What does this fold into?
Amino acid sequence: MRDRYDDERRTRFVADEGDPTLEDLIADEEVVVTVTANGYVKAVNAVAYRRQGRGGRGVKGAEVREDDVITQVVHTTALAYLLFFTNRGRVYRVKAHEIPRKERTSRGS
It folds into this structure.
């Protein structure tokens, strides 16, 4: 057996020079980010929402106050960047995994 199958090793082991970051430990799963007019924001796992069939009943997507409405809904991944533009000309860049994860019917923070 040794004479027939003995050969040089084809796999080379190379030491990884990079340090692991926080993004290496986070799964790149799909999330739905919701922003309201009063400034509440939340991220929900996309699997919390189910697909609605023809003539089916929908599910409650969020619980908002009486004077508040949902202004933005973004379907993205956890490692994607989101840009938030303010009315004062500032832009904030945030990764989706940094937004607090909440339940589907919660208000957000």
